[in-house]
Amino acid sequence: MSSVNKVVLAYSGGLDTSVIVKWLQEEYQCEVVTFTADIGQGEEVEPARAKAQALGVKEIYIDDLREEYARDYVFPMFRANTIYEGEYLLGTSIARPLIAKRLIEIANETNADAISHGATGKGNDQVRFELGAYALKPGIQVIAPWREWDLNSRDKLMTYCEQHSIPVEMKRGKKSPFSMDANLLHISYEGGNLEDPWSEAEDDMWRWTVAPEDAPDQPTYLNISYQQGDIVAIDGKQMSAATVIEYLNKVAGDNGVGRLDIVENRYVGMKSRGCYETPAGTVMMKAHRAIESITLDREVAHLKDELMPKYAKLIYNGYWWAPERLMLQTAIDQSQQVVNGEVRVKLYKGNVTVVGRRSDDSLFDANIATFDDDGGAYNQADAEGFIKLNALRLRIAAQAGRKL
């Protein structure tokens, strides 16, 4: 083991990271600082303090990052209408750069020379945490226990706990067979019967959404207000970024909105089947595209759509702090200066339908778009020259005998 005096560990208080605390103390003979982030996972984070203290940890950080997460990570991502592989709203991916940033900040505050995390060697999170850490502090040492130790099963972890007197919280009741990760934006499910891509997810797996068939028989309408591409109010009530997401999660979830079952391509090379609940994100995506549809210039909107898959891939693969993501963000944010106004959506049995949009910055001109007499606002005869100019290369090719 290389020389490490102090390490900052991303600590959840669960079995894995509790074992990691003791393992770091034993294997690296170093002081461990724990960092627990509240990013809206829906569970109490304060109990992690007592667990860390019981393991001999002296410096314990427990931070409420919900507002920063929503404002500085989720909202900027949604300005780009970001979606990975056509379906995934990146709920896990977008949380990792914030955790990496805070790990480095604490390492600087405590003069630690290393950070550590509990991500496995098969997943994307190890890449996201470490790319972020190296971008923010190039000389930091990263310790990834799952790539070093041989405690690769729950039985081995439990045996280690017994040998080192690590208290294990034995929860009563049925244990979920799924590996779950939650934050303000979403909750994910992997493992169990989901490892068979033909097997349907069981109804009792879902936590945040009712089944669409069990949702209310009457639709719910929401008026969503935007300023520079971000939601600032719902039904006229001003809300912070985190409050917007919390509110939409509840309302949309109650209407069966936000379930997803996909097989995605991980950055490390394998395919992975996962289920996700993203009620707020599903509404936000639909509403944001609606307000852009009347406020953005056509070519700006189309260019954003062309850039978005690259932007999504950067976030999924862990390049939030890379210069190319920052460059794209600058362009995206510039486009949002005129994305102001209001969108009306209808939530009904798992569906989000846009039923209205309006803006003082709208480019929609009813006088031109009308099927009725437009009073000369648009000369239809101009279309003939437009069509012939655009057909010129097609006519030349046909005359030259080119085969289609």
Molecular structure report:
The protein folds into 2 domains: 6-163, Rossmann fold, CATH 3.40.50; 179-296 and 339-358, Argininosuccinate synthetase, chain A, domain 2 (Alpha-Beta Complex). It has a 5-stranded parallel beta sheet with strand order 3-2-1-4-5, sandwiched between helices. A 5-stranded antiparallel beta sheet has the order 10-9-8-13-14. It is an alpha/beta fold and 404 residues long. A hairpin with a 2-residue loop joins strand 9 (230-234) and strand 10. It contains 12 helices and 14 strands. It has helices at 15-27, 47-54, 66-79, 96-110, 125-136, 154-163, 241-254, 279-295, 298-317, 323-335, 366-369, 382-399, and strands spanning 6-10, 31-38, 60-64, 114-116, 141-143, 179-182, 187-190, 220-227, 230-234, 237-238, 259-265, 271-277, 341-348, 351-358. Helix 4 (96-110) crosses helix 5 (125-136) and helix 7 (241-254) crosses helix 8 (279-295). Helix content is 39%, strand content 19%.
Task: Summarize the topology.
Elements: E1 6-10, H1 15-27, E2 31-38, H2 47-54, E3 60-64, H3 66-79, H4 96-110, E4 114-116, H5 125-136, E5 141-143, H6 154-163, E6 179-182, E7 187-190, E8 220-227, E9 230-234, E10 237-238, H7 241-254, E11 259-265, E12 271-277, H8 279-295, H9 298-317, H10 323-335, E13 341-348, E14 351-358, H11 366-369, H12 382-399
Parallel strand pairs: 1-2, 1-4, 2-3, 4-5
Antiparallel strand pairs: 6-7, 7-12, 8-9, 8-13, 9-10, 11-12, 13-14
Structural class: alpha/beta
Cα Rg: 25 Å
Number of strands: 14
CATH class of the largest domain: Alpha Beta
Number of domains: 2
Largest sheet: 5 strands, parallel
CATH topology of the largest domain: Rossmann fold
Query: What distance lies between the first and last C-alpha atoms, to the nearest angstrom?
Result: 65 Å
Q: Tell me the overall shape.
A: elongated
Order of helices and strands: EHEHEHHEHEHEEEEEHEEHHHEEHH
Mean pLDDT: 94
Helix content: 25-40%
Unreliable spans are: none
CATH superfamily of the largest domain: HUPs
Proportion of strand residues: 15-25%
Number of helices: 12
What order do the strands of the largest sheet run in, or round the barrel if closed?
A: 3-2-1-4-5
| The CATH architecture of the largest domain | 3-Layer(aba) Sandwich
